[in-house]
Write a structure and sequence with these properties.
This protein has about 425 residues and is an alpha+beta fold. The protein is built from eight helices and 20 strands. A hairpin with a 5-residue loop joins β17 and β18. It starts with a strand and ends in a 13-residue tail after the last strand.
Length: about 425
């Protein structure tokens, strides 16, 4: 049988302004030709990445060797990547180059000249709409790599000096919407933390009983850039320890199956954001409520099982936003009050409710490029949230495939 080959020629001049920032284009070689041999009889093109972790969760940023996803918006670019970059995704997340819980992204131009960069997230099962830990890592990389010019940012008031620190604004377009972020840089030029203001979070439905192999569990559904099911383990015999991960993965898959095509996970304006992305199993470390003046910081610990049985080592950034909407709904948090969210690896994100927009609020009172949906009388209450975390570089990689390698794009053991 003749070998099937697909030749993909990318001319980046074709993707020039007004949509593309020159700074971003220079990350990639242009023009170039990438040859994908579907039966793996010839070498897969080398792909360059820079790897970070955020609170223990990996994030692999593609910096060369792949075409820029095409489309008018980052959400459109995600659709294009699903059709044209799935082999590259598999190549980067499968063993032996990755693992079942690997995460990463393709860097893209922003949606317009008000943004600094865009991002298409990926993991072992496909392409996600939101990723908070990835946003924190991506902004850290954008500053570390020089993509964000700090002197220029200071001149254009996109950065400010506060004491011995520099605070830099970076606008990231994700499939779920536009994210405003601020990175804090110390005297040594290191990014010490990133805060991002997420797209609007909202509560979809609460108290949904789901039959599982462990018995009935109550699930609350909320949105934080993606839909999450939230399961409180307080009062149950389930625990949030590494020894329980297999059980939690099984339960997460069962709960996700229950919510396939469920009305609670239908996005009000964009069908491509509809589906349950993850299940957050959580316990209170300190079940404070701010109606009690003697209480201390509200603190939870969680394990988030996302996609098809993947485990988030971090507290989950977009999931933290979804949790904040639920905590506000239950009266456990007011605007401006902090929430500590701890992941299974021990890392902590600090989140808070920034604002609340009730149904019927005049549109000009909302932030149009962050919220993305209307405030009609029948709309959900929209909750503005922010999340703070830190990311650290762990590797710079050049991934290749020997044409004689029998495992090709790799494999997954679970």
């Amino acid at each position: 049988m003749p070998r099937r080959r697909r030749r993909l020629v990318i001319d980046l001049d074709r993707l020039s302004p007004p949509c593309v920032n020159n700074e971003i284009v220079t990350i990639f070689s242009a023009p170039f030709e990438a040859v994908y041999d579907l039966d793996m009889a010839s070498a897969f093109p080398a792909i360059q990445t820079v790897d970070y972790h955020t609170a223990g969760e990996p994030f692999r940023i593609v910096t060369g060797g792949t075409p820029i996803p095409e489309g008018a918006t980052v959400l459109d670019r995600r659709t294009w990547a699903q059709e044209h970059l799935d082999e590259a995704r598999s190549f980067l997340v499968n063993e032996p180059r990755g693992h079942a819980d690997m995460y990463g992204c393709f860097v893209t131009p922003p949606d317009d000249d008000k943004g600094d960069l865009g991002v298409v997230f990926f993991h072992k099962d496909g392409f996600s709409t939101a990723c908070g830990h990835g946003t924190i890592a991506l902004v850290t990389w954008a500053i570390d790599s020089g993509l964000i010019d700090i002197p220029a940012a200071l001149e254009t008031c996109k950065a400010r000096i506060v004491g011995e620190e520099t605070i830099v604004k970076v606008v990231v377009d994700a499939p779920s919407g536009r994210l405003h972020t601020e990175a804090t840089i110390d005297q040594d030029g290191s990014v010490t933390q990133v805060q991002f203001w997420n797209v609007a979070a909202f509560v979809s439905e609460t108290g949904i009983e789901v039959s599982t192999s462990h018995g009935p569990l109550s699930v609350d559904v909320s949105f934080g850039g993606a839909f999450y099911g939230s399961v409180a383990l307080d009062g149950t015999d389930l625990c949030l320890e590494p020894s329980s991960l297999d059980q939690l993965i099984k339960l997460g898959r069962e709960i996700k199956t229950h919510f396939e095509d469920h009305p609670a996970v239908q996005h009000p304006t964009e069908t491509r954001l509809s589906e349950m992305y993850g299940v957050i199993f959580h316990r209170d470390v300190n079940p404070a409520t701010y109606d009690d003046p003697t209480s201390t910081l509200l603190h939870q610990r969680n394990v988030t099982v996302f996609a098809d049985g993947e485990v988030d080592r971090s507290p989950c950034g977009s999931g933290t936003s979804a949790q904040l909407a639920l905590l506000r709904y239950r009266g456990q948090l007011r605007v401006g009050e902090p929430f500590l969210n701890e992941g299974i690896a021990g890392g902590i994100f600090r989140g808070q409710v920034e604002s609340v927009i009730e149904p019927g609020t005049p549109r000009q009172d909302a932030e149009p490029d962050s919220w993305g949906y209307g405030t009609e009388p029948d709309a959900p209450t929209l909750v503005g949230t922010s999340v703070i975390g830190s990311a650290y570089q762990v590797a710079s990689c050049n991934f290749t495939l020997d044409p004689a390698d029998p495992i090709g794009l790799g494999f997954q053991l679970r």
